[in-house]
């Protein structure tokens, strides 16, 4: 397994990309701990720590596939065709670990807007994705598998009244070589405000 640890951290940030097709080996327990600890360093207004994670691995992945696919079908989503179900199951069978992601809603907090809590959770996920890459693993943030179906969220233990479910991280060893992503030039997205009206 190739690690980017020997490169400067900025190189790792520049070269990270999503990798959907993964296989064993999964990160070792201490490596998963490093990824989750990286999540704790996310910017977080008010130190609410709204992120919540659940690790899904081993036989639980098959149970997740059964539960989520059945729930999506019951929801009436016509996109879950037999062909789609087959491809989803095959993909999930290859992934060694999933992490379900949710934002805990701070109902009693009137100071920190909910969108800032959501942004903090997203930042924590980005830290996990970067940490996975720095440790030589591939990762993919998926909002498939019934992310927007309440039955799935409830089955994972995230009551929709108290949590916003944000999908899953698939983490493992890249199953095939992935070419570097072609990134746009940052100058297309950056401008400078000088105080003078445009």
TrEMBL record:
Cofactor(s) this protein cannot do without: FMN
Record: residues binding FMN: 16-18, 45, 141-143
Positions of the Nitroreductase domain: 15-172
Entry keywords, A to Z: Flavoprotein, FMN, NAD, NADP, Oxidoreductase
Listed GO MF terms: oxidoreductase activity
SUPFAM superfamilies noted in UniProt: FMN-dependent nitroreductase-like (SSF55469)
Taxonomy, superkingdom: Bacteria
The protein's Enzyme Commission number: 1.-.-.-
Cofactor notes: Binds 1 FMN per subunit.
Family stated for the protein in its record: Belongs to the nitroreductase family.
Protein's recorded name: Putative NAD(P)H nitroreductase
UniProt organism field: Bordetella genomosp. 9
């Amino acid at each position: 397994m190739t690690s980017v640890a020997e490169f400067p951290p900025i190189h790792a940030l520049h070269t990270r990309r999503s990798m959907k097709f993964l296989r064993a080996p999964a990160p070792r327990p201490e490596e998963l701990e490093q990824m989750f600890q990286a999540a704790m360093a996310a910017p977080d207004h008010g130190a609410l720590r709204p992120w919540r994670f659940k690790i899904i691995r081993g036989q639980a992945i098959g149970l997740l596939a059964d539960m989520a696919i059945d729930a999506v079908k019951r929801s009436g989503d016509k996109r879950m065709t037999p062909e789609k179900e087959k491809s989803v199951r095959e993909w999930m069978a290859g992934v060694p670990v999933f992490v379900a992601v949710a934002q805990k809603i701070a109902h009693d907090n009137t100071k920190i807007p909910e969108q800032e809590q959501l942004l903090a959770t997203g930042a924590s996920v980005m830290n996990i994705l970067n940490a996975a890459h720095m440790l030589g693993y591939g990762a993919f943030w998926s909002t498939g598998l019934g992310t927007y179906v309440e039955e799935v969220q409830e089955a994972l233990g995230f009551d929709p009244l108290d949590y916003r479910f944000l999908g899953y991280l698939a983490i493992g060893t890249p199953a095939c070589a992935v070419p570097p992503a072609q990134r746009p030039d940052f100058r297309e997205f950056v401008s400078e405000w000088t105080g003078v009206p445009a």
